[in-house]
Structures are given as C-alpha cells and as structure tokens.
Write a structure and sequence with these properties.
Strand content: 5-15%
Number of domains: 1
Strand order of the largest sheet: 1-2-3
Helix content: 25-40%
Structural class: alpha+beta
Largest sheet: 3 strands, mixed
Shape: elongated
Number of strands: 3
Distance between the termini: 24 Å
Length: 96
C-alpha cells in the first residue's frame, strides 16, 4: 500500500493494526514525504521524498507547455529518495 503522504500512511498503519493484519508480514505500507516522525512509528515507515523545488519547477514547466499548446505527453520524472524501514517486506508466500 502506497499512501500519498506519511500522515495518510500513519492512518493506514493504524487501520491495519485494528483489523489484525500484520505489517509487513501480510501488508507492506509506504508513505511519501519522509517526515521526521516516520522513523519513530511502529513499525518504522518506509517513505520516499523528492526535492520540493524540483517538483515545483517540473509542474510549472508542464503547465507552461500546456498553456502554450505544446506536447504534454512526455512524462515528468523527478528523482526521489527511498528510505526503506520496517513497514515493508517481501510479499507473503502463497499457499497452494
């Protein structure tokens, strides 16, 4: 499960715990933003982050191309850093 940000991922972790599902044993959870408290959650949250300035520049560039009637089919790629912690793991084994 990938949440749009770390705070949403916190809610996902809580809901899964209340449902009796094990993280990461049965479900892996990751967030986005690398908030300082993400490392202190139980389990510690795997999270990704990108440079906000780069994201903003890419968004403005796309908007200007769109407003100028230029091609906007080219995907935008902004580098992100992944911090793997304890909320993710290998997929569970399937029983036959």
């Amino acid at each position: 499960m990938l949440a749009a940000d770390d705070l949403l991922a916190l809610g996902v972790l809580r809901s899964l715990a209340e449902s009796g599902l094990r993280v990461p044993g049965q479900v892996s959870v990751a967030g986005f933003g690398d908030r300082p408290e993400a490392a202190h959650l139980v389990p510690a949250l795997t999270t990704a982050t990108g440079d906000p300035a780069e994201v903003g520049e890419a968004a403005v560039g796309l908007l200007l191309r769109l407003l100028g009637g230029h091609d906007t089919d080219t995907p935008l790629l902004v580098p992100a850093r992944l911090r793997v912690r304890h909320s993710t793991g290998p997929p569970p084994l399937r029983r036959r």
